[in-house]
Design a protein that fits this description.
Distance between the termini: 21 Å
CATH architecture: 3-Layer(aba) Sandwich
Shape: globular
CATH class: Alpha Beta
CATH superfamily: HUPs
Strand order of the largest sheet: 3-2-1-4-5
Number of helices: 6
Helix content: 40-55%
Strand content: 15-25%
Radius of gyration: 18 Å
């Protein structure tokens, strides 16, 4: 059913649970995974107070790039441990959901996996919600991993092999393609 799965990652505490859920689905369907990290937009500080630290768009993007590299390397390592073929992409733009859907469509993904912070209706109204907009825009199914999944094992420890010989042989062949 699912052949290509996009797993959206960021630097939040939800990412390990999101990656874990996405990899479980990918293993079940012998699917390929694309990890997608969206670079956060630079917002110009607007205040009556002077900004104590000189923070430029260049410093912002450099810091975001370093965080993205770390998050993506951990996600790709988890996929490798699970013998799931994976790749990654880094996106930019101000509209996260629009970018995710655009990339998922262009890469022919048939499932998107994303974490949700579980904001209230008022918080969604004030801050927006990538997940709500993503569900509205996406033509493919969206698997939302909620904050309640955090109690499970850390991403580094999630690496069991398939139980039957045929699945293990298939997973080994796919891992060689990483």
């Amino acid at each position: 059913m699912h052949k290509k799965i996009m797993i959206v990652v960021d630097d939040s505490e939800l990412t390990p649970a999101t990656v874990r859920e996405g990899l479980e689905v990918a293993r079940a369907y012998s699917a390929e995974v694309i990890f997608y990290y969206m670079m956060p937009s630079y917002v110009v500080p607007m205040s009556d107070m002077a900004v104590p630290v000189e923070w430029t768009p260049e410093k912002h993007y450099e810091a975001a790039r370093e965080i993205g590299e770390q998050v993506l390397s951990e996600a790709v390592a988890a996929a490798r441990n699970c013998l799931v073929r994976s790749s990654f992409l880094v996106g930019t733009g101000s509209e996260g959901a629009d970018s995710i859907v655009s990339v998922a469509n262009s890469r022919k993904c048939d499932l998107i996996v994303i974490g949700s912070r579980g904001r209230t209706a008022v918080q969604r109204l004030l801050f927006g919600s990538v997940v709500t907009r993503l569900i509205t825009l996406a033509a493919m199914p969206v698997l939302v991993c909620k904050k309640t999944n955090l109690h499970r094992v850390p991403m580094e420890e999630f690496a069991p092999l398939p139980k039957n010989k045929r699945a293990r042989r298939s997973a080994t062949r796919e891992s060689a393609l990483v």
